[in-house]
């Protein structure tokens, strides 16, 4: 009986650890290109920045993507590589993203800034 309990505990531990291990393939150093646009501005203001960032652990099933010197996002990642930010969308923003493989990520984020101006980020990342 004792061996059965120990075996069950080990099995539960192994299954629990396996639950989120798929995220680790995405961790690492990435080169990010971010195109920030203000679509509603008269001149359609647009800037492009390049940043040597990271993708790492945040909590539970989230990743922390540091894509600019002063900006990061913590999306939930599904096993198929798709990214979601439920709180962001619930607050009136829009977010779509995914890892096409472990070395490439893209996402688009649209939101209202504190000045109520619409801001759009189109971000691509490639592992270094």
What does this structure look like?
This protein has 128 residues and is an alpha+beta fold. The chain contains two helices and nine strands, in the order αββββββαβββ. The chain has helices at 2-18, 86-90, and strands at residues 28-37, 46-57, 63-68, 71-73, 76-77, 82-84, 94-101, 104-112, 118-127. Strands 4-3-2-1-9-8-7-6-5 form a nine-stranded antiparallel beta sheet. The model is unreliable at 8-15 (pLDDT under 50).
CA-atom Rg in angstroms: 19 Å
Mean pLDDT: 83
Shape: globular
Helix percent band: 10-25%
Strand content: over 45%
- Distance between the first and last residues' Cα: 51 Å
Q: How are the strands of the largest sheet arranged?
A: 4-3-2-1-9-8-7-6-5
β-strand number: 9
Computed structural class:
alpha+beta
The sequence of SSEs as H and E is HEEEEEEHEEE
- Number of distinct helices: 2
> Biggest β-sheet: count, sense, barrel?
9 strands, antiparallel
Give me a quick take on this structure.
The chain has 128 residues and is α+β, with helices and mostly antiparallel strands.
Write the SSE topology.
Layout: H1 2-18, E1 28-37, E2 46-57, E3 63-68, E4 71-73, E5 76-77, E6 82-84, H2 86-90, E7 94-101, E8 104-112, E9 118-127
Characteristics:
alpha+beta, 49% strand
């Amino acid at each position: 009986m004792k061996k059965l309990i120990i075996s069950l505990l080990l099995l539960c531990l192994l299954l629990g650890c396996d639950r989120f291990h798929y995220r680790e393939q995405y961790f690492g150093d990435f080169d990010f290109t971010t195109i920030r646009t203000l679509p509603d501005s008269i001149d359609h203001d647009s800037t492009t920045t390049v940043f040597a960032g990271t993708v790492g652990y945040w909590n539970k099933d989230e990743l922390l993507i540091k894509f600019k010197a002063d900006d990061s996002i913590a999306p939930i990642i599904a096993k198929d590589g798709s990214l979601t930010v439920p709180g962001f969308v619930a607050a009136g923003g829009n977010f779509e993203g995914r890892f096409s493989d472990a070395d490439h990520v893209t996402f688009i984020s649209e939101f209202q800034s504190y000045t109520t101006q619409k801001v759009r980020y189109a971000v691509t990342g490639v592992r270094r």
